Amino acid sequence: MWENETKKTWIRNIVIFIVLVIVAGALLVTMLQVKKQIDAEDEQLESQSSNQRQELSEVRQENLDVIQQGYDADMQTAQEYLPGIICWGDSLTAGSSGNVSFPAILQKYINIYLCDVYDFRSTVTNPQDYDSRVDWEDYTLTVPVVNMGAGMEDSATVLGRSGVRPYIVSKAFTIPATCEAVSLSISSMDKKQVNPLTAGNGGLNPVTIAGVQGTLSLVSQSGGQYSYEFARLEAGSEVEVEAGTQITAASTDEYRDYIHVIWLGTYGEYTTASKLVEDTKTLLARQNVNTDRYLVLGPCTLRGSWTNADSNTLDTLDSAMLQAFGSHYINVRKYLMVDGATDAKLTLSREDKQLIQQGKVPSVFRSNASGADLNGAAYRLIGKLVYERMDRLGFFEEVRQELGLDKSTQELLKEDPDYFTKLINAT
Q: Which of 366, 370, 310, 159 is nearest to 318 (CA)?
């Protein structure tokens, strides 16, 4: 009897265990199925979320691309109509008084009345949506003004380093295989003396002679005679250079699409007014874009000295230049004599008034009593004069309209007539 009860109990326990195992197995299968379903749903949700994030990212990127395209279109307009301004000339262009030059002043006018007015962010719909992802300071307008002035250069010298009338080797010489400097003689294409590097490089170096690139150096200057050396930049094979070989300046093919401002004539070389006009036109011929946009400035004196400021000769030059270039010509001498002192708020001395009666630039605008250089006050006025003439001739019109620069120079000056004067005078 006891054994039977034990056996029954054992069998019952086994049955219960089996049932429990079956139930547990069923529960486990159910749980696995539920987990699988949940995982599938989670994967589906994650995929949907990822797709949404991807779509949102693509939309944002498309929007950024649209912004970039808008900016690129603005820059294309600027490049087409106003890629930059290049100023060719002698020491009057280079500047000498307190490191002030009219190109530097012109650059300030360009920056304030054009570049700084440009606000690309204001042209974007809902720009605040992009503030966290876009550095708006990267979307700026730049219009460079390049100073290609070099002191004491006549027109033939300026034309030579510009590349439109290259210098030539006047006597045969040999370029050694090493980078050792070697003497050479140079001249203009019509075999007249030239005098580069007396006071600045002005875009000349590095030069190329017979396919060899190197540096041209002024060795000595005495009694109006100049001695030069050439040193190649890299060693190579020895080269025999024939007389008449052209010397190609570094600036020959640079800035040809820039608006040109030409100021020749102070240091002579030309013999007649028509020759100065011809030289100026030759230099302007290197400009290959917007060829109707240029300015020509007239000389204030002759042959590098105020004592040579013969008013009759200068009047003849001014008349010929005005006839040739019309509204693109600025009579700098006349401006400094007639309006300069008033605009600069300077008082003329009795001596100054006598100089003006003689057709000469008053001393308040000269850096010294003998040489041909002007002072900072004159350069500030000329920089302003050049900008205003460009503005009047419509050089900036397309850029203003297409880039949303709706405020003209006159309007900006009305808002704060003394602002720019203070800024310039602080330079």
A: 310
Write out the residue limits of the CATH 3.40.50.1110 domain(s) in the chain.
82-158+253-425
Of 28-32, 196-200, 398-402, the least confident:
28-32
Tokens at 23, concatenated: 């139930």
Structure tokens at 148: 């290609």
* DSSP states of 95-158: --BTTB-HHHHHHHHHIIIIITT--GGGGSSSGGGGTTT--GGGS-----EEEEE-TT--HHHH
Whether 282 and 159 have beta carbons less than 8 Å apart is answered as yes
Is residue 159 within 8 A of residue 165, CB to CB? The reply is yes
User: Can you tell me the distance from the alpha carbon of 358 to that of 319, in angstroms, rounded to the nearest whole number?
Assistant: 17
In sequence order, the β-bridge partners of residue 208 are 213, 248
- pLDDT tens per residue, range 325-380: 999 999 999 999 999 999 999 999 999 999 999 999 999 999 988 889 999 999 99
User: Hey, what's the torsion of the CAs at 286, 292, 297, 302, to 10 degrees?
Assistant: 50
Best CA proximity match to 400, nearest among 137, 67, 115, 140: 115
- Tokens of residue 409, six digits: 């120079």
- Full-model pTM: 0.82
> What is the spatial distance between Cα 223 and Cα 220, in angstroms, rounded to a whole number?
10
Q: End-to-end CA distance of the chain: give it in Å, rounded.
A: 123
Pairing of strands 145-149, 85-89: parallel
Q: What is the fold, at CATH topology level, of the domain defined by 82-158+253-425?
A: Rossmann fold (3.40.50)
Query: Cα–Cα distance between 177 and 343 in angstroms, integer?
Result: 58
Phi, psi of 4 (to 5 degrees): -65, -40
